[in-house]
Amino acid sequence: MFKNLMQFWKGKEFLSEVMDDFKIMLSDSEYMFRSSYDILVENKKEPGLEQQILTTDKKVNRLQKVIRRRIIEHMTVQPTVDSPACLLLFSVSKDAERVGDYAKNLLEVSRLLDKPIDRETYSKLFQDLDKDILDLFKQTRDAFIESNEEKAAKAWDSQKIIKKKCDDIVRTLAKGGCSVNESVCFTLIARFIRRMSSHLTNIATSVIVPLTELDYYYEKDKEDKLI
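Now predict its structure.
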């Protein structure tokens, strides 16, 4: 169904404009993650970078509002036209906005640290988790923009790996070995990254689930457990 839907809205100027704004939201959220990570983990001191992250966050929020307003106005005038596409974009735009929020939260963690992150300790705990998230950004973007079910399923598999890594980090930290400040900050990083991966996967899997099942694809994984 989704492939047909994507073909349908490619000929619709209104929906094409909304899709363009949505792609910008994803791109800006990825930029926020990269930049926040550079400050938090790489201890990057580029002048104005923190302010640029905050400015980009406001831009993402503004774009979500623009998308919502366009959809509401369109459905008010033509309530039965393009409704599946409108409802889907209304939902996934919220996920893109939340990804941006969690990226900004990583910047806020950098302000809680008593001292710069010890790279050896961080690397041992987090391994290549930042690369995993960046790969998931690409998988999500490709799956959604191309309506590619195979890439959507791959994004879901990637998210399960990320989730397990994040949960393992929290379990390790709960056993001690780091200072209180490090433990709190590392736990926040793991949880924020975990939530980012969930929202990205919500977007990717919108390709392969009915509208009524958006945000609940994870329930197909019977091994999914609370931590």
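The longest helix spans residues 49-77.
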